[in-house]
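Exercise 7. Given the components listed, write out the predicted structure of the assembled complex. Treat all entries as one system.
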Amino acid sequence: MAGNAIEIRQLRKSYQIRQAQVRQTYRTLREDLVQWVRHPLSRRQGGTKKEFFWALDDISVEIRQGDTVGIIGRNGAGKSTLLKVLSRITSPTSGEVTLYGRVGSLLEVGTGFHPELTGRENIFLNGSIMGMRRREVIGCLDEIVDFAGIEQFLDTPVKRYSSGMYVRLAFAVAAHLSAEILLIDEVLAVGDAGFQKKVLGKVEGISRQGRTVLFVSHQMGHIAALCQRCLLIEGGRLTKDGPPQAVIDAYLATLQEVQETSLRDRRDRQGTGRIRAVDVWLEDAGGNRAEHFFSGDQLTIALEYELAGGERLDNVLVSFGIQNSYGLWVTDLASHLVKGNLSLGPHPGRVACTIPRLPLNSGIFTFNTMLRAGDSGYEIYDAVQNAGTFSVEPGDFYRSGTVPSGPILLNIDHHWHVAERSGK
Amino acid sequence: MTQSAISADPAKDRTGESSPVIRIRPTKGPLALDLRELWQYRELLFFFTWRDIKVRYKQTALGASWAIIQPLSTMVVFTIFFGELAKIPSDGIPYPIFSFCGLLPWTLFSGALNRASGSLVGGAGLITKVYFPRLIVPISAVLAGLVDFTIAFLVLVGMMLYFGYLPTARVLVLPLFLLQAIGTGLAVGLWLSALNVHYRDVAYTVPFLTQLWLFASPVAYSSSLLSEKWRLLYALNPMVGVIEGFRWALLGRELALSGITAISTAIVAVLFIGGLYYFRRMERTFADIV
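Answer.
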């Protein structure tokens, strides 16, 4: 009977945020000073106020030694903060964590590499960061080099490495140095398919050795395949804990709920509010509301707006920024790029933006809504982050009957030509 | 019994050591300075120091000879302007060796200050990604200066032989003054490195600060220029005790040192403990801000 590897009790972590209630996108020092003088008198009108944001809110969980545990949740839910606290990079506000064993972490690509040092030197650097003696590192050196496949470049400064080599070495170092607990944040987002496969195999092997793995990923397939247990974190709270498939299903259900929460009630918005987005949703080719799409489908983002004053606003720029689950901005669908600025109001209405053939291949995507002045004033009327979510699965984008396989982000229209030279 | 316990846990097999238990709590209460942890990470300290030295000289054409050129050229300038032209008295000691002997601990100190103050911001890549005792960063930045110091010290030995100063038993006390120089650099470095995380202005202040400090220290002149009464006040600058201590130990100069040394040591101790306290207090926010 294995004991616990990690015990977390009532863990909380807050960040102080200075939330700027944007009146205009730029501010002057004079303005700030005036606000500061007014601040004690009229608090509500103050342009800035200090707020505490609970990145982790009362998390208690025990993880048994030898388990591989997946952590899922939306961007900003607190997954990465949890791993940062566990790896002692940042300190908790309250609560307690007990870790039984040395911790190795792979939080972002290139964990703790110094660009000027060679691959070999960086392996030793990471070893000593984990508190290993030199001779212990020498024991793992061959395995690391072998796994990363960087024999010829071992004595080259890592700044000359390709990004693929960098990731391979980073993972190899984290996986082979003898940490009893391994924290992995989204490493599978990079690297080619072959390497991803190798990594997945390695994580499985690590867990068989009796080492404990905590594993943040947006790729539900990996979580389901690797983990015995899965945690769902929402708004800094641990909301679901159990077998991977059940937790993943619960997570996908919450994604829909968020979308159903009316945009009208969201408080986490910026802008002057002269025009506001009060509802936003996605439609499929048949005009029905949908959240799940296949690559190649028609996708329409529809937005309902209301104006605060009784006047029509000319020159409104409407845009939807689309982000993938790793936080990468995939594209910005913006009215001025295609249609010019829009004249909206004075009555409420609807703006719709249609992607005729969705090029995204697979994954979970979120989008924000932005309504702003298209003229030189740059006034932001209304902006909401994470206004909606949708998922995409590989589909018949090319209308060829063949669905692309492999971990790719986009499908791009293309043509092939074969020109045969005449023989002889 | 222990045999079976070990083989039951493959992770332990690999290291041959029992796995540590780590407790993470909010750092709020009285500050326990975890010296044991620092000792556990001694290899990392060595590694960081070595890395600092290596990276510093890697892309320089003259390499480690900078360690000699810097104090030597300053000594030449001082000798020409202060020694020859201004005829600043050097208590009967040839001016070149008088000033070089002062420049040696001074260069160690100012270098330590410079490197330590920028060390946390410069090491942001590591600090935001892995845990290790943060104190290692400024400490290694200070220690990295010892290589330069050693090289320059050999030059001083050569000069001593040339000018006919043979070492006496006082040399045995020199390590204490060296320790004080390092301590002063580290004490101020701790303050500045932690401050620099929050206020990047610090980086711009340091060159200015070291320049002022140079003239407030008896590098180019002797503290015997000051009357007895002012000398103790002057010793509030801990580098006074260090530099005069070096001259006392190496050049055999007679100067009432005990008062100066006592004050300098006390100041360093206060600065150092305060710096440690401030550093530890700010430490937990480094990763959130850097």
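Discussion: Residues 113 and 122 of chain A are 6 Å apart (CA to CA). Chain A has three domains: 11-54, 57-256, 263-393.
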